Amino acid sequence: MSQLSGPEIKHSLRKLDYPLCAKEAIIKIGQLICNRVPSLKHMDLALDLMAELIFCEVDRRGNKRHSPLTSLDELQLLDILYDYLNNTSNETSRNAVFLSLFSGTTAMMRSAVLSKLVSVAVGIPSPTVLSSASVWMQQLGNTSHNSNQLAKALIKDYFVLSPNIVHKLNVLPHIAPQFTANFLTAIANMYFTDGKKEAFTFPSQNLLETITLWVNENSGLCIAAQQIQSSLPPGAIAMEATTPLAGLLRWCILAPIYNEDSDLYGKLHLGLLNSILEIPSTNPPRAISAAHLVQPVGIILRFLNDEQLKVKTTEQIVDKQKTLIENKLQLCLDRFAQAIQVALSINCVYGNMEDLFYQLQQLPQNRLLRIVIHTHKLNK
Amino acid sequence: MEAELLNLSDEEYVVQRAKRALKIDPVAAKAWMITAKTLYPNNFAVQFEAYKIEKDAGHLKEAAKYFSDLLGKFQQEPEFWQEIENVTAALRTEHDATDSEKHFLCEMFRHISFDVQHQLLLFTADHCEDAMEHCRLLLLLLQKFPTTISTHGPRLVDTLLSAEKHSHASNQPINPYRKLLVCDLLPLLATENTSVELSSKLLFKLLHKSTEFYLCSLDMSKSNIQDPNISVDDPWRKLFGIIELTGRHLGWESYLTTFGNNWTKESYWQKILTFCQTHKALTVEDHVNTKQLLYCLTVFFLHCLHDYNLSLSPEPCPGQIQTSFILVEGFSDVNLPNPASEPKSKRRKGESDNQTPFITVDKTENKNIIGNFQMAVNCWDLFHSSDHLQREFGKLNNHIKLDPWLLGFLIDYAIYKGRYDDALARLQQITDPHLQLAKNIRHASILYLRKNYTSSFEPLLLVIQSLPITNRGTLSTQLNAGGNQRHLHFLPITQMTVLQYCTKLLIRCIKDNMLKQPNNYNELSIGNMLVLLQLDWPQEEDLLPLIIDQIRQRGTFSYLLFQAYIINVDILEELTYLWTEQGGQITLDILPHLGQRRIGTRGADKGVKEEIKHTIKRQIARSNEPLDQLVVKFISQERGHILQSLM
């Protein structure tokens, strides 16, 4: 079949009905992409086949179709894709196909299929499919909008729609550690984030529980995605994974002042500190970005500003309430200082350290924070 | 409260926050503790406090981790040093750790990484001023980490050897260092898959030390010294283990160093014989094989010897008195059926019957004595089958000082081989008052064999005066054996058997002495023999016709001790018959006060005749008197008369 020209391949595949044509097309695509040196011509052909015969986005003339897949078609397609990926044992080939199926330009369009595919892989579970999904998240950026969409879909499937099977996810870090780590990074960026565009949101109880469990029981989980080199097709540049550490620490630091007073934040905080302690030393450091670590500063300052505004408008804030707020703030700052201290002591923070200290010094008075800043300024 | 915190130093502040949180929020307390630890990595107080907090909270994993961190950095801190000692102390009493803190420390130790555990034990051992303590700790290290055996094992061997040398216990084979070396360390070195470099010189030294130790511990257990620090379970198995170790290192024949579960003395003896046949171990040239044979044979011999000695004093049945056995020359009687004919067929060809005495023992349950003895004899013979091996054994003996062990056996061996001078010389060495009876019995027996009858009577009298009256026993039927082969017997040391043996010995002394007299007749000897024959009558009845015949030839029999000692009905009947007309009307001069008057051959003096009749009747009436008392009384009170019949 490899001798056949592009039009001939298309022609022969078009004779088949859906979903049989998709099933044959994905095999053909695999062959085209995974050639030792795929030519541009082959790549174009593969992309054409995907659009026309797999996702049915265009017709044979390349015009956009207005009625894409029916629910039944989609279900059959998921079955075909899952089978194909799950049975492709060569990691590089599998990742190459996955990345071209859901590339930066097509992922948004195909996100429905993508999130269902990954959701199935989580549920079954399939370490192979999840490992490709992990590489995908990493290559497109685990903090990117694409990853965010995927994470949202997964949370919806598992934590909102069927909360009674959440416990099944407890073992996910063992089945697919890299995927879980990238997934965590994506989740971390969904909550407690600066509410400029969207409202400030908080993770649900069951999500928080699961994450706390994951982190506490697997001290290496947070840096798992950094521990493995992705198997990528030739020519592709491996992207560094962002760890979920800074994002999750932000949750724990901010939780007190947002009245999220679940004990789980304390536990998660401790789990994160322990995870940081376990980070193997690297030169240069790569586990936590100073810019990410310092994110809560702005939020805390804005919060204080808002509180002060409230005081001004109501004028009569009770002393008791004042102390309460002060206590929450001190807990927030204590956690912040602890996180900074532990991360700095392990030397796993990279980026603009000057700025880090500068920003920290903008924060309200806290003895531990002062000790930490003092200690590390001395050490420099 | 806040003011209180304000006055604290930074270090104290952080630790204080952790302590305070401990009561209300243990999770937060841990976060504080981690912070403190990373903030002040070089501050012992902070680090130690962190450890104590985890320990008090009962957190094994965390305490273990903090302990490990401390060990890497703060070994010199006295406070932590104390804690290290607590851990090692807890480890050593692990089995009886009822104390909850000790239990915790042991559990914590298990959570420490192997490297750190190793480091901990090595470190404590190195810093231990007490040598014994140092060795114990190192041993603990080797037990916990078999991988360290190859590096630290030989070092510990050296340490223990020199510690023993410099301790005041150095001339005692049983001392704590030796115990540790032999019972604890060597078995570890002998563990399979352990590669340890040990020179052959050192191996032999260790073998010497072990043999000496186990022999002494066996002696001690025999003398009922129940010191739990010394008593050893199954010392032979352990000594065999050390042979295995040595053999493995020196490439010895594995069949000589294998002492598995179905090991038997007989099969091992065959292996030794095979070895001798297939190697030139008995010659000077083959030094390596000589050593191999020497050590295997020595340990095997000692094992056999130990079994032999044990079987000589078997454990009594509950409620009974322990009876020991000694090897003595038995008696042969050509008139009895030859019992040796049956075992002779079993014997290997080429062994001449004259050299192999027939050995008996009274009870079948004690038959094992014979086998044990024979095996020890086999070994001893093999030692002396070549000058070279004999010399080597002599050298080894100098090292491990076997002489006290060998003494008893060598006497038996000399008796067995008929080397009476040797046996006598060795008997002289016995000074132990408990062994005097055995010594005297054999002394008497040997002097009899050397036809030194009067001298033989001396130790015999000593025996009669010190009979084991608390252990009565019964008369033996095995002291006489048929045939004319040499007969050896394991004599039970009981009152009756010893008396019986002495009586038989005395009868033979008197008889043999009488037969060597020119006229072959001595009334006193005949009378004395008649008294003695009564004890185990009719065992010696074959002698009676001989005696009666002599009396008849003489026509007269005068024995003034008659009324006092002759009460056996059969003997009295025979004598009375001689006195009658049918019997030949022999003159019986048995009434002491009638000494001057000659009894008429034709019975002229009716009164005297009546008196003799009465006397005989009176003697018959006494026939139920206890004979052992009678014989004992005779031997001890009539020694003058007896001596006369021995000269």
TrEMBL record, chain A:
It comes from the Eukaryota. InterPro entries: INTS15. It holds the Pfam family INTS15. This is Uncharacterized protein. It comes from Aquatica leii. The lineage of its organism: Eukaryota, Metazoa, Ecdysozoa, Arthropoda, Hexapoda.
UniProtKB/TrEMBL annotation, chain B:
It holds the Pfam family INT10. Coiled coil: none annotated. It comes from the Eukaryota. GO terms for biological process: snRNA processing. GO terms for cellular component: integrator complex. Its main location: nucleus. It is found in: Nucleus. Residues 336-357 are annotated as: Disordered. Keywords: Nucleus. Belongs to the Integrator subunit 10 family. This is Integrator complex subunit 10. The lineage of its organism: Eukaryota, Metazoa, Ecdysozoa, Arthropoda, Hexapoda.
